[in-house]
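Entry for the shared binder. Reason: the reviewer on the internal report wants the predicted structure included alongside the sequence.
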Amino acid sequence: MALYELPKLPYAYDGLEPFIDAQTVEIHYTKHHKTYLNNLLATLEGYEKLAKGKSIEMLLSDLKQIPDAIREKLIKFGGGYANHNMYWFILSPNGGGEPSGKLLKSINDKFGNFTNFRTELGKAAKSVFGSGYGFLVLDNANKELEVMTTKNQDTPYSFNKTPLIIIDVWEHAYYLGYQNRRADYVDQFFNILNWDEIEHRYDEAMNK
C-alpha cells in the first residue's frame, strides 16, 4: 500500500458548474493533482520511515525534520498534494452563502463583517503574482483568523497555521473557463464554498 493516495473526488467532474467547468476539474484532478502525488511518492523513495504513520500535513508542519536532500522537493510536491487534497473538499455543488456559529462570529470579530472578509480574501487571491494561493487560515499560536497568500506550492502548515479556505490561482485552475480573467474566477469561487467542511476544519483547529 502506498504511503499516500489520491483522495476520491467528492462530486462529479461537472458538479461545480457553472462556476468551474467539468473539463477543468477533470484535468486539474486527474493530471495535476495526481502528478503531485506521484512525484511526492518518488521523492520519498528510500525515506519511507520518515513518512510512515504521518499525514502529509504533519510532514509539512515541521520542515526541520526533513533531510536536506529532499526538503525542497517535499515542499513542492508534498505541498502540491496537500493543497489539492484540501481544495476539492472545501468546494461543493451545494455551496455558497455564509458560515454560521462560531466561525461566523470569528470572521465578524476579525474583519468587521462577512462582506469585508470576502473582499479581503478575494483581494489577496487576485494579488498573487504568478502561481500560488489565497488562504483563510487559523494561526495555531494565537487562534486568530488571518488572510494570507503563498507562492507556488508552499502551505500554511509550514508557518504554524491551519488552512481553512484555499483559493487556487494557478492558471490551470481556471484558464479553460475564464482565460485571463482571474478576478472573475475568484469572485465566483465563493458560490461553491462548502461551509460545513470549512466550519468542521475550524472547530478541529480551535480544539487542538
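Summary line for the report: The mean pLDDT is 97.
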